[in-house]
From TrEMBL:
Belongs to the SYG1 (TC 2.A.94) family. The keyword Cell cycle does not apply. It comes from Oikopleura dioica. Signal peptide: none annotated. Residues 460-666 form the EXS domain. InterPro entries: EXS_C, SPX_dom. Residues 1-158 form the SPX domain. It is found in: Membrane. This is Oidioi.mRNA.OKI2018_I69.XSR.g16469.t1.cds.
Length: 683
């Protein structure tokens, strides 16, 4: 690996701009070698130039090279001085707190240990900063002397060796002091202290451990393909008959939520891998403990494992609901999707202490609790990011509500499969798409059930079901709405911004209200028109917010579409951003396709209820893909904000402060003018 690539891989991404610009220095000294594309012509031209001319050109380039190198050295020294000064001040605060450890409560002691661990990681990053910059200077000066045939680079290295950023004892002493303090907090147990302070890997690509999980991932993925082929093969068996053909709408409702969850986890693992490759520090952004977490490959194993479980249960369901095996097994078929739901819930909430999943579970529980308390507590980035993910999983909420309704109303009794002769032919029904999508297919009104359609249908809506369904439908949007209102209260200077964001999520309430109005109005054309208008307004609003606010694109003041700083292209593959903009616009308005294609494609082979569920599944999957792409650019924008502040590790307070007190302190700082603080210092 070339050193420029090694430097880009190992540097602390939030400090990227403060490292030696190795590429720029290299470009200066390699100008004499330009012309390699046509080496013969280049040699002839070089042979025609006098030696004195070449030497003069070398001297000019050397002078420019060392001038630029001095600027780089000054930049590195200034940044290092700033960070080492902060480190010394913070070390003094930590030492003072450790000396008073007897006065601290258990919770404060735990927080103090976390602060030391995070500060230790910061100092280790500063040590790596020293090493990488010194190596960069050494290699570039060695390259200079080789190309220019001089020893000026070796002479300049004597200056670099004596530079302040290269005084290794400054960081080494802090490291040793932190190790000593942690040993004191661990009652003299050095091994336990060092284990707590261990430095996590720079990236998710770890030799040995990662390869082990890659093998597991490969096995799981291969097994998924095997069961997928087995499921497809079942439908090609001779004389095979399936009850699922008659109950397709209900089967989709029962199996869809767990599939969406498994796919979401797989997509998130791909997000993690992409962030790691691009240098986006999602660990810092999500405020996760970098020492104890799941890597991208491990998260991929979790998602693929859940997908495999889903495929196995679907395969069993298809086999038991067919005439392939003895009829005696068919009464148990309705237990299968319910059992699958229970297993997913147990996986999420059953404590897995002693495994690498345990920390992630605790983080997930804490996050869920914070989402339920939305509007009553201050909001962190991970809180509203996770709420955005829940909005994309809205179909999961609706499907779980529908499953509960089906069980409670005995529509899917757990002791038998109803046949056409069991259900009353004159039963009255309302298809699920009447409420899932008020504009779905005009033939889904109240109507008698024919013999051919006398099968399991979706849950018949009652006034109670309407109420529960309304709650499940608007819950994700309400969480984000409440968070925006809370942020508007906590941040007076950005109140207008957060209120505008709250207005964006309130369009979801409008869509749901108009959906109910459409259903109760007997599907009048005016209600349908208002519902379509509400969806268009919401799509335009959310699209603009995605591009301008969440991704930081569309800078109208500078009259440019892209940002000045780009991570995923580094200025070479900017087309990625244009493709992302186009796909976000297309997928935000993809719901319109249903009304152009829904009544003409495959509608002759499926009932209206079945076709509605197929469309809902398709658009739920499309929304997952849109959110998957959205995540890359949303975290890129947040990462660049952290880079602007050179924030590379979590900032953990040494004192336990109530979250409301933090907000009050921030408001106090925002409300006072800088001159007022100078007055306070003078007293």
């Amino acid at each position: 690996m070339k050193f420029a690539q090694e430097l880009a891989t190992k540097l602390t991404s939030e400090w990227r701009s403060e490292y030696v610009d190795y590429v720029k220095l290299k470009e200066i000294i390699t100008r004499l070698n330009d012309g390699k594309e046509n080496e013969v012509k280049f040699r002839i031209m070089k042979s025609m130039i006098s030696t004195d001319f070449i030497q003069r050109e070398k001297m000019k380039l050397s002078e420019q090279f060392f001038d630029e190198q001095e600027k780089e050295e000054t930049k590195v020294n200034l940044f290092f001085n700033e960070k080492i000064s902060y480190a010394n001040r913070h070390l003094a605060d930590i030492s003072r707190n450790v000396e008073e450890i007897q006065m601290h409560a258990k919770k404060e002691q735990k927080r103090l240990k976390e602060a030391i661990c995070e500060f230790y990681l910061f100092v280790k990053k500063l040590q790596a900063y020293q090493e990488l910059n010194f190596t960069a200077f050494r290699k570039i000066n060695k390259k200079h002397d080789k190309i220019m045939e001089s020893e000026d680079g070796a002479i300049f290295m004597n200056i670099i060796k004596n530079s302040r950023f290269n005084i290794r004892s400054l960081t080494l002493n802090i490291v040793r002091e932190l190790e000593s303090l942690m040993t004191t907090l661990e009652d003299g147990d050095t091994k336990k202290a060092m284990n707590r302070l261990r430095v996590p890997p720079i990236t998710d690509i770890v030799e040995g451990k990662t390869n082990h999980y890659l093998l597991i991932f490969g096995v799981l993925f291969g097994t998924c393909l095997m069961f997928l082929l087995a499921i497809i093969g079942i439908f090609y068996l001779n004389n095979a008959e399936f009850d699922v053909d008659k109950n397709l709408a209900t089967t989709i409702v029962l199996f869809r939520p767990t599939l969406l969850i498994a796919l979401f986890i797989i997509f998130f693992s791909l997000n993690m891998y992409g962030w790691a490759r691009a240098g986006v520090n999602n660990i810092l952004i999500f405020e996760i403990n970098p020492r104890d977490r799941l890597t991208a490959v491990q998260m991929g194993c979790v998602g693929t494992g859940l997908l495999l479980l889903w495929l196995i249960f679907l395969w069993i369901y298809l086999v038991l609901s067919s005439n392939i095996i003895a009829i005696s097994y068919r009464p148990y078929v309705n237990y299968i999707p319910i059992t699958l739901d229970i297993l997913f819930i147990l996986f999420a909430f059953f404590p897995s202490k002693g495994t690498e999943l345990w920390t992630t579970q605790k983080f997930f529980w804490k996050l869920l609790i914070r989402e339920l308390k939305a509007g009553f507590i201050p909001v962190a980035f991970v809180d509203f990011w996770f709420a955005d993910q829940l909005n994309s999983l809205g179909q999961v909420f609706l499907d779980f509500e529908q499953t509960l309704c089906l069980i409670s109303t005995n529509k899917i009794p757990l002791n038998f499969i109803p046949t056409p002769s069991v259900v009353n032919e004159s039963a009255i029904r309302i298809d699920s798409d009447d409420i899932n999508d008020p504009a779905s297919f005009v033939n889904t009104t109240l109507q008698p059930r024919s013999e051919a359609e006398s099968v399991i249908e979706v849950c018949s809506p009652s006034s109670i079901d309407y109420g529960f369904r309304f709650i499940f439908w608007v819950l994700p949007a309400y969480i984000r709405f409440a968070q925006c209102i809370r942020r508007a209260i906590d941040s007076p200077k950005r109140r207008a911004h957060h209120l505008q964001n709250a207005a964006k999520y309130s369009t979801s309430f409008l869509k749901v209200a108009l959906a109910y109005a459409y259903a109760y109005s007997g599907k009048s054309s005016s209600s349908f028109a208002f519902w379509i208008l509400a969806n268009i307004i919401a799509s335009v609003f959310t699209l603009f917010w995605d591009l301008r606010m969440d991704w930081g694109l569309l800078n109208f003041q500078k009259k440019q579409i892209l940002r000045d700083e780009l991570i995923y292209g580094h200025g070479e593959t900017n087309w990625i951003y244009y493709v992302a903009i186009i796909q976000d616009a297309v997928l935000r308005f993809a719901w319109i396709a249903k009304y152009f294609l829904g009544t003409s494609i495959i509608s002759s082979t499926l009932s209206s209820s079945q076709l509605a569920q197929v469309w809902q599944s398709l658009f739920a999957f499309i929304e997952l893909i849109r959110r998957f792409i959205w995540n890359f650019f949303r975290l890129e924008n947040e990462h660049l904000n952290n880079c602007g502040e050179f924030r590379a590790v979590r900032e953990i307070s040494l004192i336990v402060i109530n979250e409301d007190e933090i907000v009050s302190l921030e408001n106090l700082m925002d409300s006072r003018e800088p001159s007022h603080f100078h007055k306070l210092k003078s007293h």
